Amino acid sequence: MTEPASPESVPVRPVADPLRLDADEADAIAELFNIGMGEPAAALSSMLGEEVHLSVPSFAVSTRARITGEVGGDLEGGQMVCAVRGAFTGPFTGEALLIFPERGTLALVGRLIPVDPAAEAPGEMEQDALTEIGNIILNGCLASLSNLIGGELSGAVPGYRTGVPAAVIGSATDPVLFVRIDMALAAGDARGHALFLLDIASLEAFREAIRQALAGL
User: Fold this and answer.
1) End-to-end Cα spacing for the chain
2) CA pair distance 38, 217, nearest whole angstrom
3) 37-86, pLDDT tens digit by residue?
């Protein structure tokens, strides 16, 4: 008996992950945030009289819970963190944060104002100084990005908060687009992070902004 012909196999194409950015997009994001952070970091260096080192921006789809674990893992002895944070809106939306450990915060603002050597946590004056630094870095970066993408990113007035990383960053497990830039003073006694957490609903708008920015470079 003749065997029935087997049906022709049809190759199954993998379904593209809508949350995944390709290598070119990831490189473009790093370049844009590198440019965006350059001017405010230079302004801060001038204020402090000391060079501010920046890492290459990294980008990932993550969660606030995972980001909290990464930032908390960099701390020694369960230190609290000090953060300046503010929401931003525009072609894409999200939250920007500048985060330093308490001891790093005291070292950082000590370049600008007198700090009690015995202080273990920032007082009101130190909090105000860090808030001003955060305003320079975060809103300065958003202003630079606005120029690059040709669309206004409007940042709220940043506010100060302190606590354990989970209280400052959050512990939600829904996905966010996450850009991280590590910062350090040349002397090495103040190390922190600039974090940009973008709403996942903004992904397509973010991609379009990247394309427009690349076209203008």
Assistant:
1) 69
2) 16
3) 999 999 999 999 999 999 999 988 899 999 999 888 777 666 799 999 99
Cα-Cα-Cα-Cα torsion 137, 139, 143, 144, nearest 10 degrees, comes to 20
Identify which of 91, 98, 86, 84 has the alpha carbon closest to the alpha carbon of residue 41: 98
- Phi/psi of residue 85, nearest 5 degrees: -140, 150
Tokens 């590198």 — which residue? Answer: 34
- This prediction has a pTM of 0.86
**Residue matched to tokens 């409007």:** 154
How many C-beta atoms lie closer than 10 Å to residue 87's C-beta?
A: 15
Return the number of other C-beta atoms located less than 10 Å from residue 47's C-beta: 14
Phi, psi of 50 (to 5 degrees): -155, 145
Please give the Cα distance from 100 to 29 (Å, whole number).
23
Radius of gyration of the chain (CA): 21
Strand residues in the chain grouped as ranges (E)? 52-54, 58-63, 81-89, 94-101, 154-155, 159-163, 175-185, 191-199
Cα 31 from Cα 26, distance rounded (Å): 9
Q: What would the two tokens of residue 112 be?
A: 């600008």
- Residue identified by tokens 């966010």 is 176
- Residues 140, 155 contacting (CB under 8 angstroms): no
User: Which one, of 154, 204, 181, 199, lies nearest residue 35 by Cα?
Assistant: 181
The token duo for 20 is 């995944």
DSSP string across 110-139:
TTTS---TT-SS--HHHHHHHHHHHIIIII
